[in-house]
Structures are given as C-alpha cells and as structure tokens.
Amino acid sequence: MNIKMVLLASAAAFAASTPVLAADAIVAAEPEPVEYVRVCDAYGTGYFYIPGTETCLKIEGYIRFQVNVGPSAGGDNDSSWDAVTRGQVQFTAKSDTEYGPLTGVIVLQANADNASSQSTILDSAYLDVAGFRAGLFYSWWDDGLSGETDDIGSNVTLHNSLRYQYETGSFYAGLSVDELEDGVFKDGEEPNNVGVAFGIGGTAGAFSYQVTGGYDFDNEDGAIRAMGTAELGPGTLGLAAVYSSGPNSYYSIAEWAVAAEYAIKATDKLKITPGVQYYGNYFGSDSAVPDDFDGLGDAWKVGLTVDYQIVDNFYAKASVQYLDPEDGDDVTTGYFRLQRSF
C-alpha cells in the first residue's frame, strides 16, 4: 500500500467517526390570538361588539347629492339653482347597565357647496339611559308630516337639552329643558336663553298621533301643535295644526297654520305626495321677529313630492313648492335629490 492509499483511508475513517451537526431548526412563531368581530343582536340589526368589550356599536349614514332651484338658490351669487353634496355618519354605542341600556350617539355631517365652500358639523351628540337624555339633539319640534310642503316646526330644532321620555311599545310622553341661544328673538333683543317643551305621541293600529308644546321664557310666548296620520285607501293621510301665542323659538312663522297631505303608494317603489298648508298672520322664517303677529296677512302653500326607490338603500326624490303670501311676492322652489344610505 503506498502513501496515497494510506492518506485516503485515514481521511475516510476520520469522516466516518465525526458526528454530523444538523442545521439550526426554523421555529415558526405561534400566531397571535385574533378576536374576530362578533355580531350583537341584542339591540337590533347592524350592531357588533367592540373587540375586548361588551359594548355594541352600530355605524350608519348616507351620501346625498341635491340640486336646489328657486330665487337666489345659490345664495350670494343670485343663481336660480345650486348643487350641494352631503356626507353623514352616525355612531351608536349601547351597553347593558343596571338601569337599562346605556346609549351614546355621535352624528357627524359634512356639507360641500363647492370645492372651496365646505363645512363639517357635529349634528348630534348625546347620552341616553333610563329615559333620560342629555346633549345636543333634535327636539320633538323637528318632526313633521313629510317635511316638504308642511311648515309646522321650529326654525332651529337642534338644541343642547336635558330630557326625560317615558316610552312603551305604542306610547311616549316626555319633558325637555332646551337652551335656545340659537332661536329667534324679537327686534332689539339678544338671542333667547331657555325653554321648556313637552311631547306626547303614539300609535293605535293604522293611526299615529303627536302633540307637542313649548314655552320660550325669554320671549314669554309659547306654541302648541297637533298632528296625526292614518292609513286610508292606497296611501297615508296626514293632518296637522299649530298655534303660537306670539313669536317664539318654538314657532314663529305664523300665528296659526293648518296642513294636510296624502302620501300615495303608487307602486312598491313609487310614492307621490301632494300637500297644502294655510297660514294665519304669516310672518316667515327670519331670525329677528316682530313683537306680535297683529296686522300681518295670511299665506298659503301647495306642493308635490315624488319619491322613487331605485334599488335597496338608494332612492331619488323630487319636490316642488309654491308659496303665495298676502304681504309679499309668490315664490316657487324645489329640489332634486339622490341619496344612498348604509
């Protein structure tokens, strides 16, 4: 055996006697536990649990495109038409307490007249528990029939308020204390301070009703309103009447008014609503008002509104209104709207 063979045999023997070191094993980290969103059906559809809590949250809102028509519809530019866009989102949080559900609501609204004229506002924010509500919210005076031809509510219906409302399935009654600093005020006076309002309403079969009242302590006048709707034939008949003892933040448009409408369900997707209203001692909707309604002329209004549901959560609305005041010029206004809700 020569030297070369000896060296090769030695190398082979050394390799066979040397342990093989395995490469370090790759250990995959265990995934972090994930808490998936759980549906909360205790308060209706659309709620889910905020992860890690027992609070249920619902997010909803709408996107609206609207074209307004009428004299000076464009505001300062005296245009007879104006396009506006709005986006609104609402957050509603609910959780169980020993006093019943604790509710918190925040509504954010953004409006755009054009690219350089936009505004974002807090449209509502309030707390609600055991019938008590406190915060910024709309009063009962914001309610109406269809809200188009009828003009039976306050100029400003969004207030910082404290309210208690008792509710059953078909009846409610409540009392509120409202800050009225953005309400109407008489000539030579500052904006109002405080008012007290009440609301009573409910349903009885195909009939619904509401009685609303309010007293403005700064103006020392009040107003009361009654309205109801009833299923009648192919549609819904709505009637309303309002009386004001003098110009105040709850009602200042006229000393009294009566309104009627009939919402015709033409098809599953189409609704046609003609309406009419008559005003006694009509003033209008300016912020500064006279001391009383004496000597003012009457007015009447007629209108037509058409609603069409294009698909689920997406509808079109067109409305035209004609107003003829005894002490002023008649005026025709209207709008076309597209709105997608979610």
TrEMBL record:
Gene3D superfamilies: Porin (2.40.160.10). It holds the Pfam family Porin_2. Its main location: membrane. It is found in: Cell outer membrane. The keyword Membrane applies. Residues 1-22 form the signal peptide. It comes from the Bacteria. It is a multi-pass membrane protein. Transmembrane segments: none annotated. Keywords: Cell outer membrane, Ion transport, Membrane, Porin, Signal, Transmembrane, Transmembrane beta strand, Transport. Consists of 16-stranded beta-barrel sheets, with large surface-exposed loops, that form a transmembrane pore at the center of each barrel. The pore is partially ocluded by a peptide loop that folds into the pore lumen. Belongs to the alphaproteobacteria porin family. Forms passive diffusion pores that allow small molecular weight hydrophilic materials across the outer membrane. This is Porin. It comes from Rhizobium mesosinicum.
